[in-house]
Prior knowledge:
By secondary structure, the chain is mostly helical. Helix content is 69%, strand content 0%. The C terminus is likely disordered.
Amino acid sequence: MFDLTTSLLGFAVILAVGILVWIGSLVRRDASLVDRFWGLLFVAAVIAYAVLAPAPPSARRTLTLVLVLVWGLRLAIYLTWRNWGSGEDFRYVAMRRRFGEDRFPLISLPYVFGFQALLAWLVSAPLLAAANGTAPLGWLDVLGVVVFAVGLTFEVVGDWQLSRFKADPSNAGKVMDRGLWGLTRHPNYFGDFAVWWGLFLIGLAAGGWWAVYGPLVMSVLLMRVSGAALLERSLTKTKPKYAEYVRSVNAFFPGPRRRGRGQPDRAAE
């Protein structure tokens, strides 16, 4: 059953974390902090639901807490490491220019940090369902953990392979099509997709069929909005050989490389 009170309290916690990150962005003059703390919004959500849910503690609640802690902390640490010293993301630089330095802090609070908090709250619905579930663990939970593990593996291995590729100066300006990047053009985004559908299965095992909107929102974000679609538009413009990579490797879901389309130069994302 959907628990409105716990859901709204969870949103208040997520929003509070978002506001703290916004304050940090004002100090550092870097709105990109919101991206680095994206995973931690879900850590805040799963902790809030675990503490505030009226249902008694359960193995499923503990399982979900551990899984989200691993996923969220790993993502935050990796993004911080990857983007350290790289300056503010071009999207927020463009917003600063559009609205001006004086207006940007107040504009960014609702449109960047508040909006990210709202999205995190919507996506986190399976965590609320799992926290309120009282049924014992079953086969759906096992399936959910397997799907989650597949997703986390794609994220971790894909990020590791890409970071190693970029660390080699000889690969500068080329397109990465090795390892998992030869199965899908976006192994990290596919990994996120699988992680959240895996968590939904765990929530579904607790009776949370209504939480399906959470992974659906994440799927749309990853495939059509700020994930693969946005990145592909940028790479197509900046990397001439990327079009060849597009013709030979699946866009999102992993699959074998298509033959007879030519072999692209290898290049980093």
